[in-house]
């Protein structure tokens, strides 16, 4: 028996859940989502170009958004699919993301998928959106072109260990006790914890009223990027001295980021271009469809820092174990 709150017509998986394909299943959001979906009783297929290397939740399936035939095979028998793919680090990301969305929409329709869930970006349509945000809007539209209902969640900065935007923030604070900053540090945004994004993504699958709708998601606080940097510094008992430079161009900013963080120039440029747009929730309808209280900014920062610390300890333990094993064999 399929639970009442599973999307109408969705194909059942194990124990009454839904058989779901998660694209980007090895990624920052996708890996966490696959685990949460499985814990919620859904049958998960984790799409990856290298299934033999996949060690996440669910069953690995081969698929590439550049190969429509592989998408059809990956989607076969699925009632729903999560689309978490983008080419942010590619100079030609707009064309590549549009082509990929068209291929996925055609494959989903051919496979009889009943719902696509897409994670896009916040930003008011009336504003002069960045290339990155305009591309996210285009993907929303293209995913629905073949008639499969699309549920869209639009988010701003997603905070969590391994996320590009969060790592940029953390590394800036860690590496630069004093920094020269451009105008975009005063742009307002509404950060959200990755765990809360995942909770919303799972929740809309189980809510029939979410079908075909666009939702905006964010945490409880609206902050400028400067406030976010300052709060991270305060939490870690660091002192941050900031000197605003209004004429620092996006190109120079992206080069500066690549020097002091792990973010490459192309990705940094896309992120910085988007930081000129205010990304704040204007409609909180999602709170009535998937009701819970998201983490505040300090909570999400502490969670991300603790997760990083645990991963570093685990990696150090594995290295020590390897050294001991090698020593015993000598």
TrEMBL record:
<dbReference type="GO" id="GO:0044877">
    <property type="term" value="F:protein-containing complex binding"/>
</dbReference>
<feature type="domain" description="NAD(P)-binding">
    <location>
        <begin position="24"/>
        <end position="162"/>
    </location>
</feature>
<dbReference type="Pfam" id="PF13460">
    <property type="entry name" value="NAD_binding_10"/>
</dbReference>
<protein>
    <submittedName>
        <fullName>Uncharacterized conserved protein YbjT, contains NAD(P)-binding and DUF2867 domains</fullName>
    </submittedName>
</protein>
<dbReference type="InterPro" id="IPR016040">
    <property type="entry name" value="NAD(P)-bd_dom"/>
</dbReference>
<dbReference type="InterPro" id="IPR036291">
    <property type="entry name" value="NAD(P)-bd_dom_sf"/>
</dbReference>
<dbReference type="InterPro" id="IPR051207">
    <property type="entry name" value="ComplexI_NDUFA9_subunit"/>
</dbReference>
């Amino acid at each position: 028996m399929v639970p009442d709150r599973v999307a109408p017509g969705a194909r059942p998986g194990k124990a009454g859940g839904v058989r779901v394909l998660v694209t980007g299943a090895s990624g920052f959001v996708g890996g966490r989502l696959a685990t949460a979906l499985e814990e919620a009783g859904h049958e998960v297929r984790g799409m990856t170009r290298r299934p033999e290397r996949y060690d996440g939740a669910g069953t690995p399936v081969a698929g590439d958004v550049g190969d429509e035939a592989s998408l059809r095979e990956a989607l076969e028998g699925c009632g729903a699919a999560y689309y978490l793919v983008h080419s942010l680090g590619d100079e030609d990301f707009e064309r590549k993301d549009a082509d990929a969305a068209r291929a996925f929409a055609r494959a989903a329709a051919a496979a009889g998928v009943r719902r696509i869930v897409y994670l896009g970006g916040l930003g008011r349509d009336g504003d002069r959106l960045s290339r990155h945000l305009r591309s996210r809007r285009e993907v929303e539209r293209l995913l629905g072109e073949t008639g499969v209902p699309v549920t869209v969640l639009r988010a701003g900065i997603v905070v969590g260990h391994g996320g590009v935007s969060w790592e940029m923030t953390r590394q800036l604070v860690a590496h630069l006790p004093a920094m020269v900053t451009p105008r975009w540090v005063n742009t307002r945004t509404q950060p959200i914890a990755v765990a809360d994004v995942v909770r919303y993504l799972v929740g809309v699958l189980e809510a029939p009223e979410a079908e075909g709708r666009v939702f905006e998601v964010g945490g409880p606080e609206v902050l400028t990027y400067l406030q976010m940097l300052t709060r991270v510094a305060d939490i870690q008992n660091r002192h941050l001295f900031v000197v605003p430079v209004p004429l620092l161009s996006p190109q120079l900013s992206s080069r500066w980021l690549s020097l002091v963080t792990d973010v490459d120039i192309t990705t940094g440029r896309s992120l910085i271009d988007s930081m000129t747009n205010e990304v704040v929730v204007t409609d909180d309808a999602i709170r009535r469809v998937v009701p819970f209280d998201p983490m505040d900014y300090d909570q999400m920062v502490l969670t991300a820092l603790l997760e990083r610390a645990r991963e570093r300890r685990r990696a150090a333990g594995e290295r020590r174990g390897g050294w001991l094993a090698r020593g015993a064999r000598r």
